[in-house]
Amino acid sequence: MLTERQQQLLEFLKEYHTNNGLMPSTREIQEFFGFASQTAAVSHLRALEKKGVIQKVPGKARALVFPEQLDREEIVDVPIYGQIAAGMASETEQANEGCLSIDIASLGVPRSAKTFALKVRGDSMIDAHIMSGDCVILELKEPRRGDIVAALIDGETTLKRYVINDGMPYLQAENELYPDLVPVRELVIQGVMVALLRRGEGMVA
Amino acid sequence: MLTERQQQLLEFLKEYHTNNGLMPSTREIQEFFGFASQTAAVSHLRALEKKGVIQKVPGKARALVFPEQLDREEIVDVPIYGQIAAGMASETEQANEGCLSIDIASLGVPRSAKTFALKVRGDSMIDAHIMSGDCVILELKEPRRGDIVAALIDGETTLKRYVINDGMPYLQAENELYPDLVPVRELVIQGVMVALLRRGEGMVA
DNA sequence: AATTGTTGTTGTCTTTCAGTAAGCATATGA
DNA sequence: TCATATGCTTACTGAAAGACAACAACAATT
């Protein structure tokens, strides 16, 4: 569908955009390709627009848009704070181990929600089909009974199901081999699980 | 950290950007807020830059960038074609039921990979901890033994584990209640599972 | 009391930048 | 063969847009 040259141009646009966060002007395109005229760049852009891979907003500077980008939902950056059941004693200690960028609609959380992610270690939630190595996405909010939560219980953080019995909240593992955790002193809920991402080639059991 | 007014300005920038795919000019900001001068907009932008929430590229038009956006990995749009084990007889029939935008690094697939997603229905893969309602992300590539694949077997599409025994490939469910599927006529692999996304409030067992 | 930050105003100046007109050579398909 | 798409060139225009100077009122610190 696209010619060789048009492909090169599109490539340049994408690269420029990811590097600089904005689109090149026609003169910058001209310079990059070594054109003697900016009109060459303009006509190429026109061709790309006719083929639907870009959209132009007439009269405005650097006003090129990739159509996919427009009907995309808003992307949020979910920071990965670390592994669960390992450290993270204080809430401010944000051992940011990377980020997870995903559109907000896929998570099913409101735009205002504060979210973060933790990597699961261990198999205490295996009966809820949460595997070791999975990445759980949590929202900072009040837990309801039955929610899966990351909680700081007596100094250690774990992922468990939040249960209330006789007005007494405690944590329940989803694995017969693990006991219930009844808080001795404190029970601080750090987040409520809203989504889960399993990734990589490690899909082999 | 930000003042009321600066918050409003940032809000406007984000909204304008998601709506139009590009940044407003200082004069557009001026007009939106009803300033009598564009310098007001400029000085606000300067303040936002000093506080680190935006970056400006001097001399260029509409050259405002959100810093997070810059160190973000490239976002790919994974189309959701439909439910597994339901329809999707032909490969071209793309009942696009929405999209999943996620940064490519989180998926662990090469940039060139062709990916798509399917919503799982049924519990035949429950022992691999894939639940009904989960969204599996698949890549178009050759399966290796042990991979979880979406396959068209004798006219129907299912998600199963790809096994080879005595040089004979067949499909295996991860649930004792389901039998192995040995292809009678044909076995077309539609994609190899590379990631899984479980979302929504339905985290309650 | 002096300084700095916020939120503005009236101006002017200059560069960036998109857009157009007119032309030319080579392909590709009808 | 005639039309149409591609891939360029030179030359010009005018609007879009950033940048700066100078000033002013008001808060919050130092």
Give a description of the structure:
2 copies of one chain form a homodimer. Chain A has 2 domains: 4-69, Orthogonal Bundle (Arc Repressor Mutant, subunit A); 75-197, Ribbon (Umud Fragment, subunit A), CATH 2.10.109.10. Chain A is elongated, with a radius of gyration of 24 Å. The first copy, chain A, has an 8-stranded mixed β-sheet with strand order 4-3-5-6-10-7-8-9. Chain A has 205 residues and is of the alpha+beta class. The first copy, chain A, has 5 helices and 10 strands, in the order H-H-H-E-E-H-E-E-H-E-E-E-E-E-E. At the A-B interface, strand 2, helix 4, strand 4, helix 5 and strand 10 of A face strand 2, helix 4, strand 4, helix 5 and strand 10 of B. Strand 10 (187-199) of chain A pairs antiparallel with strand 10 (187-199) of chain B. The structure holds a DNA duplex (30 and 30 nucleotides).
What is the secondary structure topology, with strand pairs?
Two copies of one chain form a homodimer.
Chain A: H1 4-20, H2 26-33, H3 38-50, E1 55-56, E2 64-65, H4 67-70, E3 75-83, E4 99-103, H5 104-107, E5 115-119, E6 135-139, E7 148-153, E8 156-165, E9 168-172, E10 187-199
Parallel strand pairs in A: 3-5
Antiparallel strand pairs in A: 1-2, 3-4, 5-6, 6-10, 7-8, 7-10, 8-9
Chain A binds a DNA duplex (30 and 30 nucleotides) through helix 3.
Describe this protein with a few key phrases:
homodimer; 205 residues; Arc Repressor Mutant, subunit A; Umud Fragment, subunit A; 2 domains; eight-stranded mixed sheet; 5 helices; 30% strand; DNA-binding
